[in-house]
Each structure stands twice: as structure tokens, then as C-alpha cells.
Amino acid sequence: MKTVAEFEIKYCQFLDAEGNLSAGAPALAADTGELLKMYRFMTLVRTFDAKAINLQRTGKLGTYASCLGHEAAHVGVAAAMQPDDVLAPVYREFGSQIWRGVKMSSILLYWGGDERGSDFTAARQDFAWCVPIASQMLHGAGVAMAMKIKGEKRCSVTYIGDGGTSEGAFYEGINVAGARALPAVFVIVNNRWAISVPIESQTATKTLAQKAIAAGIPGIQVDGNDVIAVRHTVAEALARARDGGGPTLIEALTYRLSDHTTADDASRYRDPDEVKEAWTKEPLLRLRSYLTRLRVWDNASEEALKAECAREVEAAVDEYLSAPKPSTDEMFDHLFARPPQSLLQQRELARHYAGNHNTEAGNRDTTEVGH
Ligand SMILES: Cc1ncc(C[n+]2csc(CCOP(=O)(O)OP(=O)(O)O)c2C)c(N)n1
Ligand SMILES: [Mg+2]
Predict the structure, then answer these.
(1) Ligand 1: which residues within 6 Å by Cβ?
(2) Cβ neighbour number for residue 370 with a 10 Å cutoff
């Protein structure tokens, strides 16, 4: 017997839970302008997230998947991307989308049940949300294939959850990306839970990053609560992909501090001590400690930022709530070039029942639907 192949999985962290910087950190760790920008977005996303949950609780938003605790992973990934790269998200990567210019009012519109929310004004080539688990892996790989065929210097970045890595489409996506050396980066957000299924029941592998080995591509683990490490790792992977070096699978280790969605109650299956422990490692705290140590942040700047974020979110909420309701025709008009007779009849019926409802503005009242 001889060894025919050997593999290893590296782990990257620069900023620990207390905000201490390790040796060998990249130049980004000294770039206070960029660090402050990322901290600002992370705070904005957290403010937005809390507001979205309140909107759902008061019947003004549909089911919403909180991104609490994922801010560093989401902002770090987006900050490493070029504007003309293409993002294929799942359903909770709002931090990446907001960084890339997607309006918070669009996000609310979509999760309020209005498809017009996915007609982004910025990042127009990015994909909208993808609820069928892992199907976005094929979109991400397909887009990267198109970029390669066209000889473009662009990349796709595709998200997937820890639970999603058990799906066939996950393997199909990384496999074709490896086989064709596609300019694609896949980011697993390992938040340790897939609704009520813990990572320990999800897989026997020690890391999710090692799933890359089966696809013949590099796999790396990163502290997903360390925005410096996430941005650095993704930037390296994107640079390699852009240079023709092929795809990378990155596993970002974080924790879902919230329920799965507003339709879930995680206290029914999760040990509260685990959640308490996870709060000590959350991403904003450590970046704030680090910025404070660098003497570029203090309590006054924190208060000012929180007030500014609250104002920005309120403006987005106003825009969302005052958006004219879509007409019932919207349900029928975008699927077929020539809708079949049965759908045309249903469209008429919907018009009839909607009455003058179709022209009313605002007054959103949504019904909870799980997914
Ligand atoms: C194909 C498919 N199967 C099942 C579901 C139901 N479902 C929605 S979210 C989810 C768990 C996903 O967990 P994970 O991939 O870890 O992502 P997270 O929600 O933690 O971000 C499941 C099973 C679905 N949406 N699509
Ligand atoms: Mg998960």
C-alpha cells in the first residue's frame, strides 16, 4: 500500500473573539478607512435585521430569515468582490446585498411578497434569493461557465448553508466548477444549524471545506466572525479565479444567533447555553474592540453610527410601506409569452375579486408562510 494523494485543510483567523490581531495579518488590518466602512455596513445590516423582524411581528412583512451573527461573513465576502462579479445568494445574505447596493426597501418589498423587490436597481446581474436549497450552486457554476466562454475577467460568488452541502446540487456545482476550472468561488456559511438539524447530525466530515477535495479544488476554512479573515480569504480566491486558477470552496464558521426564520422557534430545539456562548464570539463586538484599540472608535462614534443607521433603515421602511401594491395581474404576467387560456381566465377572476384593491397604495398586511 502506498499513499497516492494527501490533503490538508487550512483555517484562517486574524481577529480573535476579543479583538486581538494575530501576527501575519494582511495590510487590510491597518486600513482603518476600509475597516470603518465594513463596521458601518455590519451595524447597518444588524439594524435592518432587527427592524425587519419587528415588521414581520406586526404583520407588515412575510416570513423573514434573520442574518443576526452573519454580518462579518456577508460583508467580508461582498467587500472582496468587484462590482461586476455576480452574486448568487440563498435567502439571508442581506449584508452582501446591501454592500453591493441593493436597496433595503427592495429587500423588504420582496420579503413582503412583492416580486418587484428582486428587480434590483444596483448589482443588476446578481441573482435574487433562492429558497430551493442548493439550486443556486448550479446558477453560480453556470454563470461562471458563461464568463469563461466569453473570456471575461469576472467571477461568480455563490453562497450555500451547512445544510445545503448535503444536497446533490452542491456537489454538482463544485464538481463542474473544478472540472472546467471555472472562475467561481463558493462560500459555505456554516452557522451550525439547518433549521433544527445541528451540524453534528448533518455530516460525518470534520470540516465542510474538505468537501472540496472530492471536486479537486482548494478548500479552506475561515473564521466567519472575523471580517478581515473572510475578506482576505475571498479576495485571494477571487484573484486566483480571475487569473484562470479555477474555483475555491470556502467554509466560513459562524453561528445563527436567531431563529431559522420568523416562522421558527429555536428555543424548542437549541440549548440556551450554546447561544450564550456564541454571543461572546459575535462579529461586531470584536471589530469594535479592535477599532477602539486602534483609537479610531469610541462610544460617541458608536452612538452616532447607531442613530444614522436607524434613520437610514426608517427611510427604507417608509419607502417600502408606501410602495403601491402590485396589481393581481403580476401573478400571471411574467411566466408565459402567451399565457394559456386557463391562466387568462384566472387573471380575469383575480381582477374581479381584487376590485379597486389593485390600485390601492400601501397598507401592507402579510400572511405568514413558512418555507
Ligand atoms: C430543496 C429544499 N429542501 C428543503 C427545503 C426546506 N428548507 C428551507 S431552509 C432549510 C435548511 C437550510 O439550512 P442551511 O443550508 O444550513 O442554511 P441556513 O438556513 O442555516 O442559512 C431547509 C431544509 C428547501 N427550502 N429546499
Ligand atoms: Mg445553516
Answers:
(1) 92, 131-133, 161-164, 189, 191, 193-195, 256, 260, 371
(2) 10
> Whole-prediction pTM value?
0.94
Alpha carbon distance 35, 83 (integer Å): 19
Using CA positions, which residue lies closest to atom 11 of ligand 1? 194
By the 8 A CB rule, do 356 and 363 touch? no
Q: Which atom of ligand 1 is nearest to the CA of 70?
A: 21
pLDDT digits (tens, 9 = 90+) for 68-124: 999 999 999 999 999 999 999 999 999 999 999 999 999 999 999 998 999 999 999
Contact status, residue 77 vs residue 136, Cβ threshold 8 Å: no
Clarify whether 260 is annotated catalytic: yes
Tell me whether residue 294 is exposed, middle or buried, using C-beta atoms within 10 angstroms of its C-beta: 0 to 12, 13 to 18, 19 or more.
middle
C-alpha to C-alpha distance for 86 and 308, rounded to whole angstroms: 29
Q: Are 234 and 251 in contact (CB under 8 A)?
A: no
Given phi > 0 = left and psi -120 to 50 = alpha, else beta, which region is 31? beta
Residue 50 sits at the vertex; the CA angle it makes with 46 and 55, to the nearest 5 degrees, is 140
Q: Which has the closest alpha carbon to 192: 228, 226, 225?
A: 225
Distance of alpha carbon 67 from alpha carbon 136, whole angstroms: 18
Name the DSSP class of 260.
Answer: S
DSSP code of 21?
B
Contact 38, 231 (CB under 8 A): yes
- Domains of the chain from N-terminus onward: 10-322 (3.40.50.970), 328-371 (no CATH)
* CA separation for the pair 23, 69 (Å, rounded): 25
Instruction: Check: CB of residue 286 under 8 Å from CB of residue 90.
Output: no
Spell out where 104-210 has E strands.
Answer: 156-161, 184-190, 193-194, 197-198
